[in-house]
Design a protein that fits this description.
Elements (H helix, E strand, L loop, with lengths): L3 H4 L4 H6 L13 H12 L13 H14 L9 H7 L17
InterPro entries: Peptidoglycan-bd-like, PGBD-like_sf, PGBDSf
Protein name: Murein L,D-transpeptidase
């Protein structure tokens, strides 16, 4: 499990600004992976925990999304997958909220 020190490599602004760069999701944790995980979830294809880490669950979710969309199934983020995920980005990817003690 990631510690808070390693889990804070990027913030909400980086997630919102993340965009497909022409290659698959980067290894490790990234803002782009977090954004793709949210968009997959919004599309009805659960990537599991939305943590920004590229892993088996993200790959499985991309495979399921590709299968459902009629794309070649390889589990890799590419331009076709990105273009089909973009309609799920009409609302902000992240939101701030405050937890208060009741």
């Amino acid at each position: 499990m990631a510690t808070q020190a390693t889990a804070q490599k990027f913030g909400t602004a980086e997630i919102e600004a993340a965009t497909f760069t022409g290659t698959d999701l980067p290894a490790g944790q990234s803002a782009l992976t977090a954004k793709v995980q949210v968009l997959l979830d919004r599309s009805g294809t659960s990537p599991g925990v939305i943590d920004g880490f590229k892993g088996g669950m993200s790959e499985s979710a991309i495979r399921a999304f590709e299968r459902r969309a009629g794309l070649p199934v390889d589990g890799v983020l590419d331009a076709a997958v990105w273009d089909l995920l973009l309609p799920y980005a009409t609302q902000p990817i992240t939101t701030d909220y405050t937890i208060t003690h009741a």
